[in-house]
Specification:
Elements: E1 2-8, H1 14-41, E2 51-54, H2 65-72, H3 77-80, E3 90-99, E4 105-114, E5 118-125, H4 131-137, E6 142-146, E7 149-164, E8 169-184, E9 194-201, H5 209-220
Parallel strand pairs: 2-3
Antiparallel strand pairs: 1-7, 3-4, 4-5, 5-9, 6-7, 7-8, 8-9
Length: 229
Amino acid sequence: MSEGFGEPEKHGRPVVQALAAVALLAVVMGALWAQKQFVHQKDTSSEPATCTTSHDRLPARYVSGARLCALLNRPDLPALLGTPRERIETADGNGDWITLSGGTKIPSPDATVTLKTYSVKLSAAYDDMRVGETGDLLAGTRRTTVLGHPAVVYSSPTFSIGFDLAGGKATSGPGGTARCVLVSRHAEDDGKGAFEIALWRQDDVLPDDTALLRVAERVLRTAPGWDEG
């Protein structure tokens, strides 16, 4: 028996996101694997998911991984994704720093929830890049708005990690494609913070952009630091 999980690669911000993929890989995958085992060992079909956090140690002026997890771990998320009969199986939040090669530290909080069909990741960006600038660096972006805020939608490859529960071995390799939306915190694209939501499927089928934007509109309106304009 084996269990597999995917995680989007980081392409939106070349330096920050590439480092984030390395720094958070062990934390995210380890937490998801541990929670998945708990789910399989116990019948939790009638219980809500519980957010777990690790390395959530950012100053109060930044949104925490726990807060991002609470935003995603909501009872209407399965319906927003178009899978109303499913439930959130695992929920995990993290809030830590990424240290760049020059010594600069950038906060990198995020949260991930998993269902049978989908995984959803919400992250907050504090790297002073405008959403439009990020869109210029990516191929195949679609510019749009979310709740009146500038946004870009793009695709990102995922990598997968599988666990052989019988043999105690782990495997890794390319996964499917995630669809991501990066949204400015403010109605003006001023580079003063952004949120990103990534959506990918466990069966590697391309996710539905309608579901992605539906989740973004419902979740971000209550996000800390969100400017209603």
